[in-house]
C-alpha cells in the first residue's frame, strides 16, 4: 500500500521542478487521503485490547489558527508539516515495536507508510529555500494510547495538509 501511495504521488508530480501540480489541483486526491486516514483511525479503534504504550509516543500538536496559517509563506507551512510528519513517523515506528497484536500492528504499519510517503513527497517539493533539513522541534505532547497516533495523523491530513494543498492550488492551478 505504501508503494502504491508513493507511485500515485509520483505520477502526479510534474517533471522538472518537482511540483505537485495534479496532486494539488485534483481535490479528489486529498479527499481520498483524508478518507484513508479516517478509515485507519476507525479500524484501529476496532482492534481488541490495544496495549497502553510503555514508552509514550511523542506526537506533534497539529491544531492551528486558520488566520495565523494564512499569514505564513508556503515554504514555512511546508517546513512545519515536515516537522509534524517526522515526529509522527517516529511515533508510529516506536509504537510498532510495542504493539504485537496483529490488528493494531497492521494499522500502525499502514499509517507509518502513508505518513512517511507524505514526508518523502514534501521533501521533494522545490522552493527557493532549498531542501528540508531535519532538526526542527514542533510543539508536541506525549500519548500513551495507540489511538492518539491515528487521531493526530487524521487531524494533520484533514487540517494542515489539506489547507497547504489548497494554498498551493491557488498558485499552481490557474
Automatic annotation (TrEMBL):
Q: What is this protein called?
A: TPO protein
Cellular component aspect of the GO annotation: extracellular region
Q: Tell me if Signal is a UniProt keyword of this record.
A: yes
Q: Which InterPro entries match?
A: 4_helix_cytokine-like_core, EPO/TPO_CS, EPO_TPO, Thrombopoietin
Query: Which biological processes are named by the entry's GO terms?
Result: cell population proliferation; positive regulation of ERK1 and ERK2 cascade; positive regulation of hematopoietic stem cell proliferation; thrombopoietin-mediated signaling pathway
What family, per the record? Answer: Belongs to the EPO/TPO family.
One MF term in the entry's GO annotations: cytokine activity
- Supply the alphabetized keyword list: Disulfide bond, Glycoprotein, Hormone, Secreted, Signal
Extract the signal peptide range. Answer: 1-18
Where do the coiled-coil regions begin and end? Answer: none
Where in or outside the cell is it found?
Answer: Secreted
Any one Pfam family here would be EPO_TPO
Amino acid at each position: 500500500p505504501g508503494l502504491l501511495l508513493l507511485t500515485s504521488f509520483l505520477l502526479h508530480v510534474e517533471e522538472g521542478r518537482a511540483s505537485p501540480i495534479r496532486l494539488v489541483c485534483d481535490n479528489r486526491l486529498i479527499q481520498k487521503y483524508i478518507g484513508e486516514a479516517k478509515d485507519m483511525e476507525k479500524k484501529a479503534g476496532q482492534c481488541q485490547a490495544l496495549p497502553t504504550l510503555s514508552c509514550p509516543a511523542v506526537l506533534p500538536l497539529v491544531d492551528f489558527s486558520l488566520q495565523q496559517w494564512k499569514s505564513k509563506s508556503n515554504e514555512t507551512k511546508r517546513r512545519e508539516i515536515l516537522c509534524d510528519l517526522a515526529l509522527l513517523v517516529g511515533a508510529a515506528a516506536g509504537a510498532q515495536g510495542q504493539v504485537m497484536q496483529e490488528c493494531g500492528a497492521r494499522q500502525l504499519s499502514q499509517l507509518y507508510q502513508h505518513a512517511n510517503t507524505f514526508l518523502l513527497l514534501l521533501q521533494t517539493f522545490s522552493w527557493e529555500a532549498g531542501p528540508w533539513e531535519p532538526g526542527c522541534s514542533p510543539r508536541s505532547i506525549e500519548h500513551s494510547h495507540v489511538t492518539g497516533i491515528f487521531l493526530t495523523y487524521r487531524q494533520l491530513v484533514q487540517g494542515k495538509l489539506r489547507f497547504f494543498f489548497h494554498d498551493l492550488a491557488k498558485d499552481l492551478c490557474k
